[in-house]
Design brief:
With 138 residues, the chain is of the alpha+beta class. Helices cover 33% and strands 14% of the residues.
Length: 138
Amino acid sequence: MAEAAPKLLEINEAEVEITAIRAQGAGGQNVNKVSSAIHLRFDITASSLPQDVKERLLALHDSRITKDGVLILKAQQYRTQEMNRLDAYVRLHELVNSVAKAPKTRRATKPSYGSKQRARVAKSQRSETKALRGRVQE
């Protein structure tokens, strides 16, 4: 039976603050005149995301998340502001949906009887091999 796809979370666009800034790097004379890069700010703590998703987002050790719980993304890959805005939204959705599904809880297991026996046999064989490396008794 196929596993159902995880439900993707929706992010309210009113909770996202977008600012156009000038892109860094080479670009000729035009780069100094056009604000094509996008600065996206998303306040995780004040968002309408479920509480468990907020906690998992804040638990990420990501340099883009400030101490105040604000996620800051900078998109400047494309030449147009619209493409950079779309790229920033896509990256935000990918990050949020990466923690949307709760991680599986680890169940403690014990080694089987057979694996314990095999380990003992291997240990005794190794011990015999090493014992033969000593000085020869006359």
